[in-house]
Amino acid sequence: MARSEVGESLTQTQTEIETFLAARNDETSRVTLRSITGRDEQQFLDLVRASVGLHHPWMPLPATSQEFQAFLARLDHASAQGLLICLRETGALTGIVNINSIIRGRLQSASLGYAAFAPTAGQGYMTEGLGLVIRYAFDQLRLHRLEAQIQPGNHASINLVQRLGFRNEGYSPDLLFIDGAWRDHERWAITNTMISPGPWPPHPTLPAR
User: How wide is the angle at C-alpha 31 spanned by C-alphas 65 and 115, nearest 5°?
Assistant: First the structure.
């Protein structure tokens, strides 16, 4: 996408986030959400460098300016969004969640990628933040299903999705190319009906039958 189109997409995501947060009106959470922007580049790259021990070899993140700009360029709002988890009191970045491969129609599904940042890791912020993103995806984006693909050895990530109520749906050998090789992954998923029976207002692209 052109730079102006990237900006418009990120602004659209931020508008959706603000609408969702205003409807929740929850002041008890320690974290909040906002869209990632180009202004976050240096701070984001600094945090990625400080968090290599957490992310490698599980989650490849942009590590250079070129990679960061390429990452922003694919966040078109409709098929992919990038959300930062921030401390409510200070605004400090504590993690990131990508809502990837958004598919509408009969599927109404997306794939999640997420990573905590080292300075604030291990304090429960990621659990709160990812939980907030899940509600955003279901309440605001009107998705029905979210999936997380996790390498079997990534116990911290598996424990995270288990805490949030995901179910294990299977094992896929050679699913994703990460760190120079095709890696096996477990597939964990959650649907809106696992959180609440609803009714959940359908997205306009969902067929009537």
Answer: 40
Long-range pairs of 119-123 with CB within 8 A, sequence gap ≥ 24: 119/47, 119/50, 119/92, 119/94, 120/87, 120/92, 120/94, 120/95, 121/51, 121/54, 121/94
The tokens describing 86, both together, are 């921030």
pTM comes to: 0.94
Query: In the structure encoding, which two tokens stand for residue 207, read together?
Result: 């067929």
Residue 115, helix vs strand vs coil:
strand
Q: How far apart are CA 191 and CA 209, in angstroms?
A: 19
Give the separation between CA 32 and CA 76, rounded to whole angstroms: 22
Q: In whole angstroms, what is the distance from residue 107 CA to residue 24 CA?
A: 26
Whose CA is closest to 68, among 48, 93, 91?
48
209 assigned to some structural domain: no
Q: Beta-strand (E) ranges in 88-131?
A: 93-103, 109-116
- Number of domains the chain contains: 1
Q: How far is CA 33 from its chain centroid?
A: 11
- CA Rg value for the chain: 17
- Tell me the C-alpha distance between 155 and 112, whole Å: 17
Inside any domain, residue 144: yes
- For 49-104, what is each residue's pLDDT tens digit? 999 988 889 988 999 999 999 999 999 999 999 999 999 999 999 999 999 999 99
Q: What tokens were used for 192?
A: 């809106």
CATH number assigned to the domain comprising residue 182: 3.40.630.30
Q: What is the CA angle 30-31-33, rounded to 5?
A: 160
